[in-house]
Amino acid sequence: MKRPTIADVARAAGVGVATVDRVLNGRAPVREETSRRVLEAAQQVGFHGTNIIRQRMLADMPSYRLGFVLRKERHDFYQTFAAELQAAAQSVRDRRVQITIQFAKSGEPSELSELLLGMSGKVQAIGATGPDHHDVTAAVSALRAKGIPTFSLLSDFAQGVREAYLGTNNMKVGRTAAWLISKLSPRPGKIVLLLGGHRFHGHALRETGFRAYIREYAPDFEVLDALINLETRRITYELLMNAIARHQDLVGVYCIGGGMEGVIEALQESQSGDRIACLVNELTPESRQALLDRHISGVFQTPLRELCADLILTMTNTIEHGMAESPGQRFVPAHLWVPESL
Fold first, then answer.
1. What is the pLDDT of residues 106-139, one digit of tens each?
2. Distances, alpha carbon 67 to alpha carbons 87, 93, 113, 126, 164, in Å
3. Whole-number Å distance between alpha carbons of 184 and 172
4. Which of 53, 159, 239, 285 is 20 to 30 Å from 198 at the Cα level?
5. Which CATH number among 3.10.25.10, 3.40.50.410, 3.40.50.2300, 3.40.50.920 corresponds to the domain 63-168+304-332?
6. Is the pTM of this model over 0.90?
7. 146 Cβ partners below 8 Å, 6+ apart?
8. What is the per-residue DSSP string for 189-209?
9. What's the half-sphere exposure (Cβ side, CA atoms, 13 Å) at 26?
């Protein structure tokens, strides 16, 4: 088979041979759109100089280093989050984006602070998930003073100091959860809320939204004091099994943060899924199966693909144009899954 030539690339790209030569050898500036057409044509015909063309294009692009701190490295949700960040970075066509991802081993604010400060000098912007705490705020302030913007993800922290929050509108998610449980329950009764901890701003907003809706529109329901599960499966399981045993009129459960695996286990073992409406967060293999088996009623899912694409673009724009005078927030709508929508 004849080896593809520059002429073949030019024909496939709809440009002249001289244009392909300029792109290949960097002899003169070529518009980015034209260079991209040449690259795509080279890939299409199997041209031997495709990698050289790609490298020359990359060399002309601005390069950015972004850092991320996520939680629970072994959890399906955070593995998916990391994969979507990588995919979003690779899909940027007009910039070279290199990302570094680290995982916090605990929910301690001190660890998040150390990880954030440890990225200083290595990246140009940071996105992180974690608790709201004065140690975290101090770290974000120190990074901002060095010109490194920090973005809070999923649950807000360091308000007024961080560059922006990106995630769902947690107050709205909480109100939606309350509406759904009040409609699914055949009669008024008690509702249990499970929180990861009081330091998670997103959890606090979801609880606030939930209670506000019940007070206003479903006052016959009683929302019990929130139970702190530290987002662990075993503690969540024990807390819910105890609540089921103590409250015969328990009609609703909302796992506001992590630990939903313990909720699913408890509802399975107690065979309470048919009389207790239950909502959890994030669609994983386990929550998907529990939904199909009718052990839980619904799942709120963060649209990670949309979030990560917006996040990468926002971070690179901030590096290019500078930090905002007034830190803001960017909401992505949560997706709600029920058994019949899977």
1. 889 999 999 999 999 999 999 999 999 999 999 9
2. 15, 19, 14, 5, 15
3. 18
4. 285
5. 3.40.50.2300
6. no
7. 120
8. -EEEEEES-TT-HHHHHHHHH
9. 9
